[in-house]
Design brief:
By secondary structure, the chain is α+β, with helices and mostly antiparallel strands. The chain is built from 17 helices and twelve strands. Bound molecules: magnesium ion.
Amino acid sequence: MSQHPRQIIHLDMDAFYASVEMLDRPELVGQPVIVGGASNRGVVSAASYEARKYGIHSAMPMVAARRLCPHGVFLPVRMARYRELSEQIMAIFHRFTPLVEPLSLDEAFLDVTASRALLGDGATIAEAIKRRVREETGLTVSAGVASSKLVAKIASDLHKPDGFTLVPPGQEREFLAPLPIGRLWGVGTATAKTLALMGASTIGDLARLPLALLTAKFGPSHGEHLHLVAQGIDEREVEPEQEAKSIGNEETFEKDLREQQVIERELLGLSTKVARRLRRHGVCGRTITLKVKYHDFRQITRSVTLPVATCDEGELYGTTKVLLDRTEAGQVPVRLLGVSVSGLTAGEAGGQLSLFATQPKKKGKQHGLHAAVDRITDKYGQQAIKPATLLAGEGKKE
Ligand SMILES: [Mg+2]
C-alpha cells in the first residue's frame, strides 16, 4: 500500500429526478413518485424511495411500473430543470477541488488529496459537501470516501439515501469481501453467472480465486481485471471535465444468436440502455452506430447520421434495426452486438422537434427533447419518427 493514499470521494444524488420533483412540489413528499418516458416504450428514469417499496426501479418499463403501483404519481422527465440543479451541485463540488469528474448529471468523482491541508481529510470534506448540497439545494447526496474510484463508488451506494461511507486506506479488501460480485464495475450478469459456477458469489470469494484460473476462463485482460478489482485495486485517475465523445453499450453473448427475432430483442435491450444513459448525461446524439461481431470473430460497424439528435429508445431501436438489415446477422450467427451514439449535443437541442414543444399537455414550460419525442410517438405512433430515420439511411458507412 502506498504511503500517501489518494482521497477520492464519489458523490451520488439520491433518486435525483424524483427528488427534484418532490423539491418543486412538496405535496409529493412521501408519495411513490415515478419519473419516466410517457410513450409505450418509455422506461422509468427515477423512482422515489417510497416507489421502490413497490418493486419499482429505474430502467423498468413504465407499463410495468404502473402495474406495480397504480396509484403512484407518474411524471414526465424535465431535463432542463434537472440540468439546472446539476450545475448548482457541480459548482458546489468545484469549491472543494478542481478535480471533479462528472459521470452523469447527478454523480461525480472528486480527488481531494491535495485539498487536505486546507480543508481537512476526505471524510471531513465529504461531510461538508453533503451539508452544502442540502443547505443550498434542499436535496440529499450520498458519499463514499476511499483511496480509489472503484471503492468510493461502491461505498457511496451502500447506505443510500443520505449515506456516508468511509473506507480507510488498507481496509479496502475487508470492506469489499462480503459484498456480492455484481457490485463490481465491469461484472455483468453473464460474468457473475460464470463466477457463481466457479463457486464465487461474493467479492471475497473472487479475491481468493487464483489469477491463472481467471485468465484461463475470461482471457488475460478481463481475467486480470477481475483479479485486481476483487482486491480493491484501481489506479484510475479522476479525470476532470471529461467530455463524452460517444455513449454506447455492447454485449457478448454466451451462445451465438441465430434467430432474427432474438437478435432484434437484444437490440431493443441495448437501445433502451443507451437511451437511458444518454438521458442520464443530459445529451442526445445524431450518429448511431451498430457493431456486429460474427461467430468467426469478423467484426463490422454500420452507421447513420440522423437529421435531428435523439435520446429516445424507440428511435434508437428503429434505426439500429435498419442498420441490422445491412449486415449478415440472421444468416450468420452473431457473437456480439453493440449500439453507440456520437455527435452528442445538450438534450434540449430543439431542431424540428421544437415545433411540437409548443403543444400544451402539462403545465410545465420546460420540456426536454425526450419528452417531446415521447409526445410525438404517443400521438402519432413510432412511425411518425421512422420515415426521417429511413431517409437518412444513405449516411456514412464504415
Ligand atoms: Mg443518483
